[in-house]
């Protein structure tokens, strides 16, 4: 329905005009105003799409009323009604953005013709506006999905440069050279907080939010040059924790990794943020990795953190033999140095906790590894450590032993069949029964390219085929292959094909 306001100081003129319009147009909601001042009040409340404005009225003229209404409501269209179709009137009307005029008295056919033309224009603009709103909504939805996938691949793999650069531009986000990771631990079943946290990160500053993996939500934060790292991270952590209901607060914790300049190092900050969550019983529910002391007094802190990082990377890469070797070497070193047996056991417990955390990322459900007793000598400690590590490895095997040999082919085919949609690693994970992180890992290992690159190749190949049809516009092709912004599609296409879509199309039709 189109809302119409008729403004004229003559009651008979208003009623006659309304009767004619309602007879010939069924999609109108009509209100009347007898003068310019009343028209301003009604327009503010009624928010008409179109105003038929008489120019010569006592008190405030139609031109004055149009100017005031237009100031607060620039979307409203105006058609001038006047008994004087002079050049001066026309010039004044054009300056105010009046789109048409009718001369009094007018024939019914002239009124219907003018209004038909005007209403058609308004309908087309409304359709275009709705389409733009829909496309903007779907673009935002797609970018949220894309953002979580890029975070997954930055933290667990390597994202393709094409997408990283264009994503920054699309999100209108100023990516600074320095960046760090925050890991938010939520209670199970707290998925409802996800949207609130995303909005809070957007409000406080630049950041990318990953997918929620079990209890863990990673956030890549871009350093604000006007704040210190600690001030920025502390503010964001406190604001996130303010979202939490009092009954849930005890199960929340935020770990904060150190600042790095290279995207290749962002995984290091992520690892640190996770390690900073290993003691969640603290009264302050966030902690910086740099403030994390060695939990075992007497153990060299620098060496301890080196072992943590080694174990973390080995498990992430599926190198179980190297993990076993690292733990064995550590036990031998501590034995030779004469370290207290209990301190060594406590440190090994920390390292096995790291193994369990990485497995949890991959979707392996398990209890935290715990020594069933206090070892009485190093031989016994070696045997029990090996046993606990074997149990963790067996949990890993059990989780993935049912994975069919053609899982990667299934993933590839799913991406090919749904490339035009807003698909994500999380969605693919539901289809094949694997965690998004593990999909990213095995995809890169077995195919040599990451998931986003493969998805892009599928879309670009389809775009090339569609370009053979001269009847299809590039805008249509953009949406058909799964993109929501023609400019973004054009930039990705040019970087992948070394030619713009227009240039490529000219070559194939030459």
From TrEMBL:
Alphabetic keyword roster: DNA-binding, Phosphoprotein, Transcription, Transcription regulation
Domain HTH araC/xylS-type: 409-507
GO BP, sorted A to Z: phosphorelay signal transduction system
Keyword Ribonucleoprotein: no
Sample GO molecular function, one term: DNA-binding transcription factor activity
Record PTM 4-aspartylphosphate, positions in chain: 54
Record keyword Lipid metabolism present: no
Response regulatory domain span: 3-119
Protein name: Response regulator
Organism in which the protein naturally occurs: Aquibacillus koreensis
């Amino acid at each position: 329905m189109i809302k119409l306001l008729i403004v004229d100081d003559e009651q008979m003129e208003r009623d006659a005009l309304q009767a004619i319009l309602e007879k010939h147009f069924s999609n109108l909601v009509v209100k009347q105003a007898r003068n310019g001042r009343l028209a301003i009040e009604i327009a503010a409340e009624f928010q008409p799409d179109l105003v038929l404005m008489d120019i010569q009225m006592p008190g405030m003229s139609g031109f004055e009323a149009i100017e005031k209404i237009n100031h607060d409501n620039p979307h409203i269209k105006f058609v001038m009604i006047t008994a004087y179709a002079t050049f001066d009137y026309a010039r004044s009307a054009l300056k105010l953005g009046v789109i048409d005029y009718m001369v009094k008295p007018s024939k019914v056919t002239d009124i219907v013709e003018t209004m038909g033309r005007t209403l058609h224009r308004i309908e087309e603009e409304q359709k275009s506006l709705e389409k733009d709103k829909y496309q903007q909504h779907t673009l935002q939805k797609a970018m949220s999905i894309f953002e979580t996938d890029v975070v997954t691949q930055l933290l667990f793999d390597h994202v393709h440069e094409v997408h990283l650069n264009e994503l920054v531009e699309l999100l209108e986000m100023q990516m600074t050279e320095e960046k760090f990771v925050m890991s938010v631990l939520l209670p199970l079943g707290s998925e409802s907080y996800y949207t609130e946290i995303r909005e809070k990160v957007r409000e406080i500053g630049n950041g990318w939010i990953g997918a929620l993996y079990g209890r863990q939500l990673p956030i890549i934060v871009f350093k604000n040059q006007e704040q210190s790292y600690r001030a920025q991270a502390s503010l964001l952590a406190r604001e996130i924790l303010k979202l939490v209901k009092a009954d849930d607060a005890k199960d929340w914790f935020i770990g904060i990794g150190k600042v790095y300049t290279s995207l290749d190092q962002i995984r290091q900050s992520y690892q640190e943020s996770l390690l900073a969550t290993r003691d969640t019983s603290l009264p302050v529910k966030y902690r910086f990795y740099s403030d994390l002391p060695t939990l075992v007094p007497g153990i060299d802190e620098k060496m301890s953190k080196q072992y943590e990082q080694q174990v973390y990377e080995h498990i992430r890469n599926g190198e179980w033999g190297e993990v076993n070797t690292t733990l064995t070497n550590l036990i031998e070193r501590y034995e030779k140095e004469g370290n207290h047996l209990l301190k060594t056991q406590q440190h090994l417990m920390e390292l096995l906790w790291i193994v369990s955390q990485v497995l949890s990322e991959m979707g392996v459900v398990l209890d935290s590894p715990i020594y069933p007793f206090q070892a009485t000598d190093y031989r016994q400690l070696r045997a029990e450590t090996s046993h606990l590590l074997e149990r963790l490895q067996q949990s890993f095997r059990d989780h993935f032993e049912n994975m069919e040999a053609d899982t990667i082919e299934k993933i590839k085919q799913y991406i090919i069949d749904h490339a035009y949609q807003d698909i994500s690693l999380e969605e693919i994970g539901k289809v094949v029964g694997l965690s998004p992180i593990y999909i990213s890992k095995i995809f890169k290992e077995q195919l040599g390219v990451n998931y986003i690159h493969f998805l892009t190749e599928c879309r670009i190949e389809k775009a090339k085929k569609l370009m053979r049809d001269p009847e299809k516009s590039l805008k249509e092709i953009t949406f058909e292959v799964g993109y929501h912004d023609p400019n973004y599609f054009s930039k990705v296409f040019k970087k992948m094909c070394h030619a713009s879509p227009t240039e490529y199309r000219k070559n194939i039709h030459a």
